[in-house]
Amino acid sequence: MRTPRPDGHPGLADATRGRILFGGDYNPEQWPEETWQEDVRLMKEAGVNSVTLGVFAWAKLEPRPGAREFGWLDRVMALLHGNGVGVVLATPTSSPPPWLGRLHPDTLPRDQDGRTEWWGGRQHFSHSSAVYRRHAAAITEDLAARYGDHPALTMWHVNNEYCTYDWGDEAAGTFRRWLRDRYGTLDALNSAWGTAFWSQGYGDWAEVLPPRRAHYLNNPTQVLDFKRYTSDMLLECYVAERDIVRRYSPHVPVTTNFMPMWAGQDAWRWVQEEDVVSVDLYPDPRDPFGAQHGALVQDMTRSQARGPWMLMEQAAGPVNWRGVNHPKPPGLNRLWSFQAVARGADAVCYFQWRQSRQGAEKFHSGMLGHAGEQGRTYQEVSRLGAELDRVGGEISGRHSACEVAVLHDWHAWWAGSQDARPSREVDPAEVVRAWHRALWEAHIGTDFAHPEHDLSGYALVVVPQLYLLTDAAADNLVAYVRGGGTLVSGFLTGIADEEDRVRPGGMDVRLRELFGIRTLHEWWPLDPGEYAGCDGFRGTLWSEEIEAGDAVAHSRYQGGELDGLPAVLRRGRAWYVSTLPEPDALRELVADVAAAAGVRPVLDGLPAEVEAVRRGDLLFVLNHGRDPVTVAVPGTHRDLLGRRRVTDSLELGRYGVAVLSP
Fold it and tell me: Which residues are part of the catalytic machinery?
C-alpha cells in the first residue's frame, strides 16, 4: 500500500513495495535481440527484480531529428514485465546523439580556454543551452507519454550523474541573469566580489563573464558564484524533466543519481527536489579505508534522504578508470552491499547487468561478466540476490537517526578549496573524511547535516571544517550549544562570510566567543610530513597561534614557535581543535567528547576490523577483515542471514555479515 510523503509525492517505498530492489543498469540496445531472452533467464536466477533502462539510449530512440524508434524499448519493457522485473526508466539526456552537436554546435559545452567539448564521449551538453533543453524536453515528453502508465515502470531516473561545467557564450548570458537575480545591481555585485581589488570594477553587465582562463588567479567570489550557478543550472535541467514525467505518472517516484562527495552539486539543495535520493558508490577494493569511504557516503546519502535511499550503482568487480583496476576478492561485494543496507539502502544495484564487449567501459565489470554465468562474479551476485530476497521484507523501510551529526556544506567546500589560500595541502573533503573516520573507528553512528539545519535532536555535533559560514549558520551553532548540545570544531571554521569576505578578527566573533578565543593571531600551516607537537599527540596539516580568553587549554603545543600555546580549547560544551590530530589521537578525542555528551558506541569491545550498525531495531555486524572473529553481542538474537539463534557471542568468518533481530 502506498504511503504518501508529506509533500504528496511518491517515495522509494512505492518502488520497493516492502522488499529491497536488486539489479542494475541494463543496456539491451548494445546486444542482439536474441540475447535478451538469456538476460531475463539469468536475471531471474540471480534474483534481479529491478533494472534501469535507457540511460544512454538517446541516439537509439531518436536516430534522426524528430524520429522516434520505440519499438525495441516496447519489446524490452514487455519482456521484463512478463518475467517479474521492474523498470527504472531513464531519460536519455545525459548523452545527446551526434546529430544534435553537428546541427547545433551551441549545445556543446566549452572549457575555461574556450575549447569545445565534442561528442564521442558522454555528458557533452551545455546545461544553459536553450536548444539542448528543448530537445531534451521533447524526447522526455514522448518517452513519458508512451511509458508513463506502463505496468513495468517503478521509477523515473532523470539524466545521469549531472557533472558538466560550461564557460561558453550562452553560459555567460545565463550566468549574468543568475547574478542579476542574486545581486540586483552592479554596485551590489562589485561589493560582493570585491572588485576594487586589481581594477576589476564592472560598469556594464556585458563585461561580466564566467571565470575563464586568466593570466593569474581568478576572483575568488566570482569562482564561488560560478559554482553556485552551475549547480543551479543543472538543477533547472533536472527539474524541467522531472516535471514532465510527473505529469504523465504522478504515482511514480523520480530520482537522479549523485556521485559521492561530488563538488559540482549542492546536494542539500538538490534533495529537496527528489522523490528518491540515490548515489553511485565505487570504493577501491585495495584501499584500506574503502569501507570507511563507503560508510561516509552512505551516512551522507541516508541523511540527505532522511530515511531509506537507493544505491543506484556499484561495481560487481573491477572498474575501468583507475590506474590499476583491481577486482573484488571473494565476499567483498556481499559485505559492501550489506554495509549499504545496514545504513539504510533499500535498493542495491550495479553498473551494469551484462559487461560490455565494446566501448569505453568494456573492462568495467558487470553482474554478468565476460566469464558468463559460470564466472565467480555472477555466482556471488546470485547468492546475494537470494539473500536479499529472503530477508528484504524484514529490513526494507526501517530507519533510525543517530545521536551525532557531522556538518557539511558545499558552499564552504567551494570557497575553501580555491587557490591562494594559506595552504593547498588542506583539502576540505579530506578533512571531512578524517573526522568521519575517527567516529567510524570509534564505532559511533553518524548522520550528516547542513549547518543551518535544526540540530537540537543531536547530543554531539562535529564540524570538521566550515571555512565559509553564513550568519544564520553561526547563530545556529551558538544556539545549539546554549541549548545544551556539545559541539567540537576543527580549524579554519567561520573564517569567511557567504561572499568569501574574511570575518573581522580572522574568525567569526560569535565563534571566538563560543570557543573562548580572545585573539587568533596567525595561521601556521604545516608542510607535507611536518608535525606540530602537542600534549599527547602530533598535529598534521595545520596549527594556529591562539590567545585564549576564558577557555580551558585541553592540550598545548610543545616545541617550535607555538610552544605553550593552546592547541585544543574547551569552553563548556564547545571544543575547538586548531590542528588535525593524527588518526589515533583524533579517534580518542572524539570518543572522549562523545562519551562526555552521553553518546556510546553501537557495541562495546568490538575488534578493530568489525563494524556494528543499527537500522531500526536490527543490528548489522560486519567483519571487514580477512580473518574470522568473535564478537560479543549481549543477549539472545535471531540472525536473519544465518537463520540461527545467537546468544552473547557471534562468530563471523572472512568478510562475514550478520543481521541480528531481537
Answer: 161, 313
User: What proportion of the chain, given as a percentage, has pLDDT over 70?
Assistant: 99
102-141: pLDDT as tens digits = 999 999 999 999 999 999 999 999 999 999 999 999 999 9
Alpha-carbon dihedral of residues 142, 148, 149, 154, nearest 10 degrees?
A: 140
Quick one: cell of 541?
A: 596539516
- Geometric angle at alpha carbon 404, from 401 and 405, rounded to 5°: 90
Query: Which tens digit of pLDDT belongs to each residue from 85-97?
Result: 999 999 999 999 9
Q: Is 185 left (phi over 0), alpha (psi -120 to 50) or beta?
A: beta
pLDDT of residue 400: 87
Q: For cell 567561520, name the residue.
A: 494
Query: Within 13 Å, how many C-alpha atoms sit on residue 288's CB side?
Result: 3
Q: What is the pLDDT of residue 8?
A: 79
d(CA 415, CA 392): 42
Q: Identify the residue whose cell numbers are 570538521.
A: 464
Distance CA 650, CA 637 (A): 10
Which of 546, 545, 600, 551 is CA-nearest to residue 573? 551
* Grid cell of 521 as nine digits: 593571531
> Which is nearest to 384 in space by CA: 94, 20, 4?
20
3-state secondary structure of 187: helix
Is the Cβ–Cβ distance between 27 and 354 less than 8 Å?
Answer: yes
| Beta partners for residue 615, in sequence order | 618
Architecture of domain 610-661: Sandwich (2.60)
Helical ranges in 249-361 per DSSP H = 267-270, 290-305, 332-342
Residue from 621, 625, 623 nearest 646 by CA: 621
**Taking a C-beta distance cutoff of 8 angstroms, is the pair 265, 234 a contact?**
yes
Cα 635 from chain centre: 36
Q: How many CA atoms, within 13 angstroms, populate the side-chain half-sphere of residue 113? A: 2
The C-alpha atoms of residue 386 and residue 66 are separated, in whole angstroms, by: 43
φ, ψ of residue 318 to 5 degrees: the values are -75, 160
Number of CB atoms found within 10 A of residue 408's CB: 25
Q: Is 3.40.50.880 the CATH number for 404-596?
A: yes
CA atoms of 561 and 45, how far apart (whole Å)? 67
pTM above 0.85, yes or no: yes
In the chain, domain spans: 404-596, 610-661
Question: What's the DSSP call for residue 496?
Answer: B
CB 542 within 8 A of CB 493: no
Cell 580568553, residue located: 549
What's the start-to-end Cα distance of the chain, in Å? 26
Cell matching residue 283: 570504493
Residue 3 has pLDDT above 80, yes or no: no
Q: What is residue 517's predicted lDDT score, i.e. its pLDDT?
A: 98
Strand partners, 266: none
Cell 552512505 sits on residue: 298
Cell of 135: 530537445
- Smallest CA-to-CA distance from 333 within 346, 311, 315, 307 is with 315
